[in-house]
TrEMBL record:
InterPro entries in alphabetical order: 6-blade_b-propeller_TolB-like (IPR011042), WD40/YVTN_repeat-like_dom_sf (IPR015943)
SUPFAM superfamilies: DPP6 N-terminal domain-like
Domain of life: Bacteria
Protein known as: WD40 repeat domain-containing protein
Length: 419
């Protein structure tokens, strides 16, 4: 995990870069992205004559490409982008391209500490992972649901292992898909494989599997559960015990289950399950009644519900609180432990807990202006652009990264300012 204590937490505001002049220097400037520590702002820029590069704090990378796509900072602050030249794609890290190139590359992912960088690639009609510039030794004619372990040592994807034509329904029903882990496929095939999960230690992989046209189950390291269901959703690992649980459908309703069977009461729907860091609590998005959505923790739903959406949920580090986004009609809201904050927004982003869970912050948008809200209290004014906030290790300060008046500013504020 990246040590945010190494970031600059001195209170105050600093203009990092005047971005107002970028549009005059380049043919066009694409969407900005900002480093986690707030020290750098970047964007893909076009220099004319189909020459693309990346501009960082006003300085362009030396290399030019036919196209640059998906700029993204790693957790440790390195800037990456996908780039193509002469119809070959590669990943560029801090202006340096990987040695290998591919017919296509997409979906950049990072290890938790940012030291490992990977992306999905296709070459000669075959698909797989490339990790730090090295592709899987075995590639497949189709691959989806790419996952990277938190330590970066394990890659996995749902892959096609049997060739068949588009109308060959008989071969399809026999099963032609499996899961490949670090390039090696499981021994058994399935009708379909979806939504993989890798255990926190990177040693195990679980997935949704379709064992016939009508039966679904969870597969762990290639071994299916003993029970089948009309449908299942993405499995999750308990970070403490390693047990696998997943939402499953039974008699027209949904619940959480492990290999032995159901764990919770049934709901109209139940999905996007997640554990607290210590594995003591299990939560999921549920519909306790038709058309109403909320969070259930250890099988107990919140009383507050939403009509359109619930998501972007997470536990506090101590596992005692859950925060999420909710939507009623077109109005976005933020809820913590079932209590809905008073603010109503045109858009909101995933809430962030302070270390220990004493405070919650989120980026929000209303009327085309962006700001940050902490514990239900909004920062006065607004920004032209804003990124998700971050707490200092002691939870006393908040890092705000924003563009206002053509300038990208890095601001560190005491939590006491949000009252």
């Amino acid at each position: 995990m990246v040590d945010v204590g190494l970031w600059n937490w001195e209170p105050g505001e600093r203009v990092v870069s005047d971005v107002s002049g970028w549009a005059d220097r380049f043919e066009w400037v694409e969407e900005f992205c900002v480093s986690p520590d707030g020290e750098r702002i970047a964007a893909v820029v076009n220099k004319g004559d189909l020459q693309f590069t990346v501009c960082v704090n006003g300085e362009a990378w030396e290399g030019d490409y036919d196209r640059v796509w998906h700029p993204k900072y790693s957790p440790d602050g390195r800037l990456t982008a996908l780039a193509t030249e002469m119809a070959e794609w590669t990943l560029v890290v801090e202006g340096e391209a990987w040695e290998g190139s591919y017919a296509y590359a997409w979906g950049t992912k990072f290890s938790e500490n940012g030291q490992v960088i990977a992306c999905a690639v296709q070459q000669d009609g075959m698909y797989g992972w490339a990790v730090d510039g090295k592709p899987w030794e075995t590639m497949y004619e189709a691959a989806t649901d790419f996952e990277l372990s938190s330590d970066g040592k394990t890659t996995a994807a749902a892959v096609q292992t049997v060739s068949f034509g588009q109308a060959d329904i008989f071969t399809f029903q026999k099963g032609g898909y499996s899961c490949a882990v670090n390039g090696k496929a499981w021994d058994d095939n399935f009708v379909n494989i979806f939504h993989l999960s890798i255990s926190p230690d990177g040693a195990h992989v679980a997935a949704e599997a379709r064992t016939s046209l009508y039966d679904y189950t969870i597969v762990l390291d290639g071994k299916p559960w003993g029970k089948s269901y009309p449908c299942v959703w993405k499995p999750v690992f308990n970070p403490s015990t390693g047990e696998v649980t997943a939402p499953v459908r039974i008699a027209g309703k949904w619940t959480m289950a492990n290999e032995a069977g159901p764990l919770w009461q049934p709901f109209f729907n139940c999905w996007h399950a997640f554990y607290s860091q210590d594995g003591a609590h299990l939560a999921a998005l549920v519909a306790p009644e038709y058309g109403r959505w909320t969070i259930a923790v250890d099988g107990k739903p919140w009383r507050s519900t939403f009509s359109s959406y619930v998501g972007e949920a997470s536990f506090s580090s101590d596992g005692e609180l859950v925060a999420c986004l909710g939507k009623d009609g077109d109005v976005w809201k933020i809820a913590v432990q079932g209590q809905i904050w008073p603010g109503k927004y045109d858009m909101a982003w995933k809430p962030v807990f302070s270390p220990g869970g004493a405070h919650v912050a989120a980026k929000v948008e209303r009327g085309g202006k962006y700001t940050v809200v902490v514990d239900g209290n909004e920062l006065p004014g607004g920004f032209d652009q804003c990124w998700e906030p971050a707490f200092s290790p002691d939870g006393r300060f908040l890092l705000i990264r924003a563009v206002e008046g053509g300038k990208y500013v890095r601001r560190v504020l005491p939590i006491t300012d949000f009252k």
